[in-house]
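Hey, quick one: can you model this chain's 3D structure?
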Amino acid sequence: MSVADLTVPLAPAAAMAGLLPDPFALVHGPLAHWARERPGALALASEACRLSFAELHERVQAHARRLDAEGAPATVLLRGDAGTLEGVVAFLGVIASGRCAAMGDAQWPAGVAQAITRQLPQGQASAAATPLSPFYIGFTSGSTGLPKGFMRHHRSWAESFRVSLQDFGPAAGARVLAPGRMSHSLFLFGALLGLWTGAGAVLQERFSAPRALDALRAGAAPLLVAVPSQLVLMLEHAQRRRLAAIEGVQLVLISGARWLRERTPALRRLFPRARIVEFYGASEASYIAWMDAEPAAPAQAVGRPFSNVDLHIGSHPHSPPLPPGQPGLIWVRSPMLFTDYVNRADATAALREGDWLSVRDFGYLDASGLLHLCGRENRMLVTQGKNLFPEEVEARLLAHPGVAQASLQGLADGLRGTRVHAVLQWQGDAPPAAQDLAAWCRAALEPFKAPRHWWLWRGDWPQTASGKTDHAAIGRALMAGAPALKAWP
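Sure thing. Here's the predicted structure for all 489 residues.
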């Protein structure tokens, strides 16, 4: 069987529902199949090692047997210090043993790892996994001082793999380059997608834009999964070295942060035969919506729902849907939703009503059914009696060629409710006057959305463990008058 033969029938709907014992209904299930059908084909590769499907399957089973012999608990924390490829092998060994793998981060302080371990579900491992068995706990930024752990069952990711093939086409069944740390769920997902389809995955022990481009040019992987910052580094390297176009890339999947759509033409020149897709999702929901990257697309548009996703915009999933163009809570219903948080203190981070889930994002559907994302509920500001979502203004600022990073903050104001401050990291020549940047905002946004106070951030830009802007840290620095902040000229 070739990669081109991998279509939706490999994972029939009945198996996805847990009604049939189909190996493709489990995340690791296809490994044994591919070890029989394509034993010598490449399964995993990085700078450190190359493993065929037969070799990978043997190592995974050996790891699972060791866990059984040791009497390991039902949930095993992988600290992320074993290396990228070895981390995937260990992950697969844990879930092949019927246990749940909690994917930690090597950069966590020891105290954080210890606190997380105390939160993890314990008990004895299941004799055999089912589609609804938990297999993965990932972590994202939390509001309790600890990373927020979210638990997934096999069906949620197996269905994500299936709908990738259905919605993106045969290119989603090609070998994957996932050049990031496995503690980031996007790259773990990319690696496991390549193993599930039998195409294999190429990893990086440490991200390198030159090495990633060399691998793509050599034909190592027709499918690239990346976050925007990685693509920007690849584009900048290609421009500096005046690299020729790379013809072998068929599909680029972008997520993790807002893609700078003004960079899409350059990305198309670098990968002229590739379909470039950006998708909107959440740790708790997996895929939600997707679209082909278009420079002229509305700034807040994130696409149309995946073919197995239902959307509802409103205060409650059973309330009448809001009319086109009117923002409200985004509710999602799909077979890809998460199971629960591992820390009860995080239980209110998302809203659940029966089969529906909201991660408290606000957005709206336009008349054509395109989803537009306004922003997160907990970041919404009220200024001059009007609701302002910082994400919209940040997107406009990031479209300016001199702005490298942007964070919108609100400070209390007795007259306006909130004073809007923009904190920027500048790149290139000397920054313009603040009123010029305000005019840049007003050219595309309502006047009240233009910041009135401007700050330059000096030094490393604050980021969360997943590589996103740490808006909370910037807000604290602004409140404290931190030396990293300089009033805009």
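One thing worth noting: The two ends are 63 Å apart (CA to CA).
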